């Protein structure tokens, strides 16, 4: 009996210890990036397409793993149809026609892959590059903060088929799970780039999790309005932003990862998180909910081999940009290798009212040249005093990434979980 009690006690200590070591940043008793991710997609041979996807899909349709599909031009799923994609299916975006998949308002996408058999969207070029094809757009009828109940994308798309927004927070646009999206974000003539995955007005019954976006020329993920939860997302070496939130989105994002390169940037923004409530104030109705993002257990990392030199050369900017009239709750998040970690829009007044809308709790700031600043203002004493308060339990360190993470420089199967044993806990910058 005593031996049994001892064994149970030891197991509990091991279990609790493993959890405690992974309190901050991405979590998991095992490395959840294994099996379904790919960090060298340009070395993978996906084969040649034997089926074409083009035009409008206006009735329920299923794509099968036995085929390889080429996405040509703008492919709209319309008239409340459901597009179902079997686990393991490969869809190749056409370079010449900017292959793009658009799930219109009322339609549904069921792309439910498996950990051992993910669904893959990639480029049709032999030498793949960021921006080879368009991306995936999902349009729902959940609320935004724009005037009226409808908005339309300005992506040179059919304006009738690119409407989104409404009043149904519970709307369901389907399932996107165990999916890889590679080399998307093609340039739009006279405009910016497509985003690899754009969720606009998407409702809370939509399931979005275990998605890896790699080498995106536009934002890896853009969420415009809607109300949804995101879990286990990866953005790998995007040129633009990793995660962009705008237009009143009410979003929970958990256990997710952004890996940036010092040598990839865009004049439209190259941050891990860009959080705004509007692009222009005149676009939105301030009686509606403004953007509110709750982010827990994120890991935001610049994985440079020579970070100090990159910062000195001006190649590294902030990890997070927070616009005015937004709410952000950061909890148990790791920000490693930026200059600085967080920048607040210059219109945000530094007082209790506004800072209570931007909560940073149990955040680990590592290897950053400065932690939190107001835009265009190098004097951050008030902000450091506020967020350095022991009540927030924020932690500061200057450890190298290879000491901070389990195996961040492994090119085939990296592990970005935190090595908690290597952290010197401090509330001093």
TrEMBL record:
The source's domain of life comes to Bacteria
Species annotation? Flavobacterium cellulosilyticum
PANTHER family linked to this entry: LIPL48, SECRETED PROTEIN
Q: Which residues form the signal peptide?
A: 1-20
Sorted alphabetically, which keywords does the UniProt record give? Signal
- Name of this protein: T9SS C-terminal target domain-containing protein
